[in-house]
Structures are given as structure tokens and as C-alpha cells.
Amino acid sequence: MKLLDFRKKSISTSDGADDGHEKMNRTLSVFDLTLMGVAAVIGAGIFSTIGVASFNGGPGVSVLFIIIAITCGFSALCYAEFASRVPQSGSAYTYAYVSFGEVFAWIIGWALILEYAIGNIVVAISWSGYFNNLLKGVGLELPYWLSTGYFAGLEDVESITKHVASGEVLTSQMTYVLNGFKEAPDLFGHKLLINVPAFLIVVLITWVAYIGMQESKKVSNAMVILKMLVIALVIGVGFFYIDTNNWLPIGQNGTPSFFPNGMGGVLMGVSAVFFAYIGFDAISTTAEECKNPQRDLPRGMLYALLICTVLYILISLVLTGMVSYKELKVDDPLAYVFEAVGQNWIGYIISVSAVIATTSVLLVFQLGQPRIWMSMGRDGLLPKRFATLHPKYKTPSYSTIVTGILVGIPTLFMPSSLVTDLTSIGTLFAFVLVCLGVLALPKIKKEASKYSIPYVNSRFVLPIIVAVFLYVTWDRLKGSVLNIENENFHEVLFLLFTGTLITFSIFASIRKFNAIPILGALSCLYLMIEIPALGWFGFFTWMAIGIIIYLSYGIKYSKYKKNKRNDFT
């Protein structure tokens, strides 16, 4: 028996035509898919992590949004071709099965749990914070021990203790945390601290996802329209309070600069900004519920990405124009900048919108994860129960419940610091394989019903890209090579990326590959090397656990391994 199985599922068995599985209700249009993409992308990122990215990168963070949008755009084009040619639930998991084989499909499916499940834990905790702020705004307040997880409480107390030890004066918020921790009930010698709002919103969202896509899309569409109106208000009002001097602060060299901390400062926000974009690929998990997936999925993805990019760029310019970028390292940057200019009423509207925005992200992710597990259950890599559809609602009921438990329980005690690095690296890895997977698809004649990526000859593009990259990074590259024995983890990754870039470019140019998937994969790889070493360590640990599960269960019960029909290429 082979240790790992690399057999591919043929496109004919993945096109959803007649695969023998129960059929899901087809209710989604281009409009629904576009709003679902916006729902997934415009969430915690625009209301929280954008502040940290702006603090590090200054006004130049708007350029980082463009860079990441281009990177996601390459990936979106590749997702769109896969979605058109393999219109089946499962997203990157199914696409990897078709292009690389079973073991890579499992790896991708396991990586996507980082994007959807763990990402949703973070979003739920963020939602709880916004919700508690709303309650305070109307004179209500949950006890500290009912609105904060145990490990989050320990982190808060430890952080405050360090600040006090360094001579800082206790603020009212610090006092509130210390008193709340002290007054929390004791349970077996430990303080009882649970984040009840985060848990309850996961339960509610899981119920909505359980009862059907029709109900889910109505709820999601309503929330998206409302939060886009609020964002339009923020942008419209905010432009009247912009001080253009804030766009050219004094930089490291003592002169005004749009990049006060250089491109290094801008790139420090990679995880935070990319986390803001995570989720647009969730649209592809709904392929079996689209009215016309081969036409509508590509359009929905690209429309959503374009809308979100424009909004993110405008928001970043408003934030860094209204106040100094140095003031933006706060949990609620949008509300903060309006409070700073005396417009507290807008800050309250933003808090309401933040609750709505994060709710819509939760819903889309809670829809995406069960459909990936459903596909894995159909293929035998997970127990068959994961593939079960509800007889009435036609949703993956068992997978939805398991997703709710997997997300809901940790929100009770997890800290909010479980944030972007691990989720971002898992998603970028999935994007890399999707981009490269397009190159493995068999050539087809152009059809009106199928989307395909425009062809750009690598021979005319990649050599120029390599030359520009080497010119811009020559000093860093030379220094890394000369001091390789003393370099840190990031510089080693940089050297590996440079070697990969040159190798890919030579090979792709000789074979005349389409440059778009290659550029997508290389862009994602570069963003990955900018993620801190701890994120990589967590990612490799997660992947090792996944391989162990595959070797102990998936490879043994794989449906297609036991199936003797010609289902593989």
C-alpha cells in the first residue's frame, strides 16, 4: 500500500452533473454571490486590524491594500476558472483533488480549517467586544467575567501588571479589568471567566446556517447592504475632516513622506491587511447552490473583490487623513477618528455597523466550512456523516453542527490574541496551490458557458518581473548571502523565495505557461515570507497533525481508493 495517494479525481466526476449525491437547493444569483463575498471581506478587518496596519505603515498602508488586492485578484481569477470548470462544493479542497491528487486535497482541506474555523473564533470574540460596547452605550453592562474568556482575562491582567510596574498610571479601563477579574467567581481554584456573547452569536449563526441557504442569504444580504451604507457615510463625512498634512508625516529620514516607516513598515501590516481579505474564496464553497455556477461564480468573486478593494483604500485614506497614523493603534480605529474630531454620534453608528459587519462574516464562514467537510465526507476522507444533508433544509446538517461546536466552545475561553498570522498563512498556502493547480488543468476549447483566465505568455512578463525584483532588493539579497550564517528566519525565507522566483520564471518562460497563475502563486509566496516565524511554526505543527489524521483514517477509508471504476486520471 502506498504511504500517500496522489491519484487525481477526474473533472468528469467533479462537475456535479450526476455524482450520486443528494442535491442541494440552487438559490444563489450573481447578486447574492457578490454580496456574500462583500459580507466575508468587509468585517473585522475594516473595523479593527486596519488600525494596527495603519500605525505600522502610515498613509502608505493604502498601497498595501492595492498590493494585496492584486495578489488576491490573481488568485480570484484562478478560483474563477476552477469554479467554472468544477462547479462543485468544496472550494480549494475539490480543486486540489482535481489538479494535484488526494493527499494535496487533504492538506488544502486541513489548511482551510485555519481560514474558516479558527478565523471565525477570532471574529466571534471581536463581535463580543463590539456588542459589549453597544450595551455600555445604552447604559447596560455585562459583568467582566461573563464577557471575557479565561485566557483573555489572564492576558489582560498580565499586560496591566507590566504597565503598572513600568510606572504608568492606572486608567479607568485598567481598573475595570482588575476589579472584574478579582470579583469573578472561583471554580476549582481558578477564576471563572467565559465569553457568553461570543458563544451565543455562534449558536445563533449556526442555527441560521443550519436551516437553509435561502434564509442565510436573506439575512446576509440585508446586513451587507446596511453596513455598506454606513461605510459610505463614514467615507463621505470623513473626507470633510481630512488634514492633508497627515498624509505626509515626518518620516525616518526627517522629511515628509507618504511612507514614514518605509516599505518595511508597510509590509509589517501584511497579516493584518490580508486577514481583512480572507473569505472571498468562501463564495466557491456554494457552487452546488448557485443557479448558474459556471457563469455566476467567477463574476461574483471578481465583483466582490473589486468593491472591497475600493472601499478599503478609501477607508485607509480617511483614517490616516483625519488623525496622525501614530494614533491608530486602537481596537476601534473608525470610531476613534470620529471621536477625535468631536463627531461621537458617528462613532456610535460605526459601533452598530461593526456588530452587523462581523455578524455577516461569521455567517459566511459558518456556511463555508461545513460545505468543505461535506465534500471531504463524500470522498471518504472524513466519516460519512459529514456528507449528510438535512432532509428538509438540504444543508450539510451534521457538518454545520460540528462547525458550530468547533467554533463556539473555544470562544468561551480563548484570547483575542489568537489572530491573524496562523489564519493568513493557511489561506495563502491554499491560494498558492489553487494558482498552480490551474496550470495542471487539461486544455479546453473556449465555451460561452465557461470562464477561463486570459492567456499572458510568461516569456514576455516574468523575466521583467525578476529583473525589477532583483534590482529593488539587490542590497538585501547581497547582505543575506554574505551573512547567511547569521541571518534570521525571515532572511532565510527571503533567499528561498528569490531562488523559487528565478526557478519558476525560467521554467515557466521555457514552457510558455500562462503568467497570471504563476504571478498569483509567487505573490502569495512573497506575502507568506513576511509573516512572523511563530506563525510558520504554528502552521507546520497544524499540517503535521493533519497528515497524521490522513494517514490514520483518510487514506484507509478513501472512497476513490476503494472504487475500482475509472474515476481518476
TrEMBL record:
GO molecular-function term, one example from the UniProt record: amino acid transmembrane transporter activity
Subcellular compartments: Membrane
Bilayer topology: Multi-pass membrane protein
Residues in Cationic amino acid transporter C-terminal domain copies: 516-558
Transmembrane regions listed in the UniProt entry: 33-55, 61-82, 103-127, 192-212, 224-242, 262-280, 301-325, 345-368, 398-416, 422-441, 453-472, 492-508, 513-529, 535-555
Entry GO CC: membrane
Highest taxon listed in the record's lineage: Bacteria
Keywords: Membrane, Transmembrane, Transmembrane helix, Transport
InterPro entries: AA/rel_permease1, CAT_C
PANTHER family for this protein: CATIONIC AMINO ACID TRANSPORTER 4, INNER MEMBRANE TRANSPORTER YGJI-RELATED
Identification of the protein by name: Amino acid transporter
